[in-house]
Amino acid sequence: MYRHLLVPVESTDACIEALGHATEFAQAIGARITYLHVLPASASRVTSGQPAALARPVPRRVHELLARAEAAARAQGVPCSSAVAFAVAGSVEEGSFETIAKAARQHDCDLICMATGAPGAQALAFGTPDAAGLPVLMCAVDRRPAVEAAIGFLLGAHRALADELHEWLDLFQAAGSQGSVPGATTLREIAAWLRGRQARRLRPEAEASLFSRLRERTSVVSAELDELERLHRRDEELLDELAQMAGQNTQSGTTAKQLERALSAYAQFAWEWMGREQGVILPAARRYLNDADWMGIHLEFDCAATLGRAAKHTDTISEPDGSRA
């Protein structure tokens, strides 16, 4: 039986679904996982006689992808680690299949699990010189329309929150690179964004609809649902605390630095519950919920998304940019 799986990590819906399949499979057979994100060749710096190195630090979004994957594995008791590799410049699909196969051998993996249609998937599945003798498990995608639509809403809500957090953290990073901190206007906008976050979120409907329907169908993930509901309550508390911090003293450089650290910590917390929802709850929902359940969830998510868009239109926050004082 397989002992060590290599699972490429990307941001697509299909890849997120494949991560869930791979984590469940690893748990069932007692295997461990190495998650791999392949960076484009342009991100590497090659020194004569030395392996390729990053030309700049690993992007925060890559850390997010890997953190979410690891959170799902931890929730299911699956040992895991993460790695970053560089694609081979100028080859098919930017060398993804070569890079993945090489990483699998480097980490002593005996099975590659990846989404159908992922970069390098076809080449690996049909065999390449680098992958010769290394089995590849292609994870199918659930194409039921109601399932795709409902899960698309939920993943869209996850991405919206992640994008907003990255924008604010990038702004802090840009200011820090110039030896300064964001000004009072930016801090007030962050405080307003945090206060308005509750009205724009989809999560209460996810708890009331997806979670409750899943509880009715199975007790397999009851403990995980309990934990996620606790994390969601804590999430609301953290957003309130961050809003208060941002609005305390917008003229203070100390406040800005404290807020940056707190926002960064909150982002890590958000990656945790997102990963658990994506890698534990959604696979269980696909297995246990029927078509009528998914139709109901889709309708409720659709209504929630409409309300969220309306709330966003009334929000007076301007988009983050480099022109703030």
Explain the overall architecture.
InterPro entries: Hemerythrin-like, Rossmann-like_a/b/a_fold, UspA. It comes from Caballeronia choica. This is Universal stress protein. Residues 1-126 form the UspA domain. The protein has 325 residues and is an alpha/beta fold. It folds into two domains: 4-139, Rossmann fold (3-Layer(aba) Sandwich), CATH 3.40.50; 145-314. The protein has helices at 13-29, 60-75, 96-106, 121-125, 145-177, 184-200, 203-217, 222-248, 253-288, 291-314; strands spanning 4-8, 32-39, 44-45, 53-54, 80-86, 111-115, 136-139. The strands form two sheets. It has a five-stranded parallel β-sheet, sandwiched between helices. A two-stranded antiparallel ribbon has the order 3-4. α5 packs antiparallel against α9, α7 (203-217) runs parallel beside α9 (253-288) and α8 (222-248) runs antiparallel to α9. The chain is globular and about 60 Å long. It starts with a strand and ends in an 11-residue tail after the last helix. Mean pLDDT is 83; it is low at 46-53 and 316-325.
Biggest sheet details: 5 strands, parallel
- Order of SSEs: EHEEEHEHEHEHHHHHH
Task: Indicate how many domains the architecture comprises.
Answer: 2
Structural class comes to: alpha/beta
Helical content (DSSP H or I, runs of 4+): 55-70%
Give me the count of strands.
Answer: 7
Q: Provide the residue-averaged pLDDT.
A: 83
- Alpha carbon gap, first and last residue: 59 Å
Helical run tally:
10
What would you report as the Rg, rounded to the nearest angstrom? Answer: 21 Å
Strand order of the largest sheet: 5-2-1-6-7
Contiguous low-pLDDT stretches (5 residues minimum) are 46-53, 316-325
Strand content: 5-15%
Q: What sort of overall outline do the alpha carbons produce when their principal axes are compared? A: globular
